[in-house]
Recover the amino acids of this structure.
């Protein structure tokens, strides 16, 4: 190992792992995308594939960095476990961005999973309309009410509408918008 520069060994290791990551990512995400019945359009599919693959590469490099800074596997597992827990909690789904504690909000800014999550949510929900399942008010005498007398029990709903706009849902629930996709 002393014959090679550590950076050259790291780059070579990354390049050797790339074909395996490509095959695994494409096969897993291909099955997942169509089994969950996400948008059946080429644009959203390839955007999903691109950001899922990029998130895989970024997280792989983060864990590779933790592993290279540790002497043993046991020493690498503790910080990796804490880091992945923090990255998942502060993605924006478990704790919405507006509800995050101010002094831990910075985790969301450096979280690559949060950026991928936002893009995937916008990719799936933006521009779509979803039928409303439950209305408010609900009960006897309200079944036949129409117009502005009722509203769907989902964030982003408009009074009197039987559908919820995916764009408004993302904006009111998470403050996500299409303009954030390529940032």
């Amino acid at each position: 190992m002393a014959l090679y520069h550590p950076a050259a060994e790291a780059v070579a290791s990354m390049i050797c792992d790339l074909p395996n990551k490509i095959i695994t990512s494409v096969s897993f995400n291909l099955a997942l995308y169509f089994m969950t019945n996400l948008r059946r359009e080429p644009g959203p599919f390839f955007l999903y594939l691109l950001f899922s693959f990029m998130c895989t590469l970024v997280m792989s490099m983060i864990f590779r960095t933790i592993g290279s800074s540790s002497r043993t596997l046991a020493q690498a597992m503790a910080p990796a476990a804490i880091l992945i827990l923090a990255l998942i909690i502060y993605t924006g789904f478990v704790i919405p961005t507006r509800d995050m504690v101010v002094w831990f909000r910075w985790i969301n800014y450096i979280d690559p999973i949060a950026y991928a999550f936002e893009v995937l949510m916008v990719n799936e929900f933006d521009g779509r309309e979803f039928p409303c399942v439950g209305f408010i008010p609900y009960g006897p005498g309200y079944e036949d009410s129409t117009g502005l007398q009722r509203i769907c029990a989902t964030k982003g709903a408009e009074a009197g509408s039987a559908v919820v706009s995916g764009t408004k849902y993302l904006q009111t629930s998470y403050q996500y918008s299409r303009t954030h996709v390529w940032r």
